[in-house]
What does this fold into?
Amino acid sequence: TVSLPDPQTAQLNRFYTVEFFREVACRLRPGGIFSFHLTGAENYISPELAALLRCIDETLRAVFPEVTFLPGDTVHFFASNRPGQLVTSADGFLRRLRARGIQTTYVREYYIPFRMTPDRMNSLAAEIRPRPDTPLNRDFAPIAYYFDAVLWSTRFGRGPRIEPLTVATSLGAIVIALMLAAGRRPKRAAAFAAGAMGFTMIGLEILLLLGFQAMHGYVYHQLAILISMFMAGMAAGSWL
It folds into this structure.
């Protein structure tokens, strides 16, 4: 069981990727069960929440042959590396509890049928069913991190969603417009070159930090070393 918050940061996102799920699958015994939870909703699944849950569900199914979930204010996901290990009905769940003599402290028999009513199970399944365009969450393509940021932003109002491709296209258009405006005028060309280099260095440094975090899971402990290496490279490049 992984008990962590939603993929709110690049570090937390590493525990919801294809690569991490593969590590878990390799360490499970045959028939073992892996579980974790994400933010859910008792009644209404918003489009932003559905996109996040759909992405994680698709990523989980890319590794495990059997996946199910428990709806509610918190959605619990369950996955097994062997088919036939999970139950998807309240009756089957309760039969296993009684047959194995498991004494629960916080979960009572009336609670399971409430959480696993067919209407709730089918409704959540329809909302988070993967689509042809549903992406997989990966270490170096942390799309669930983006979905969670969009979900978090809806708490402060529903404005127009800005897609990453739209941002990249807009920035490219601005750069081309500035290049054409600079033309062959030395002062404008020099100002444009200095500005473009500054923004490029900032972008490369952010990518370096995010890449390090994606590979190693942390960044602040080594932040001084990373920045020092980056500045040393800039100094060497300037000298050359």
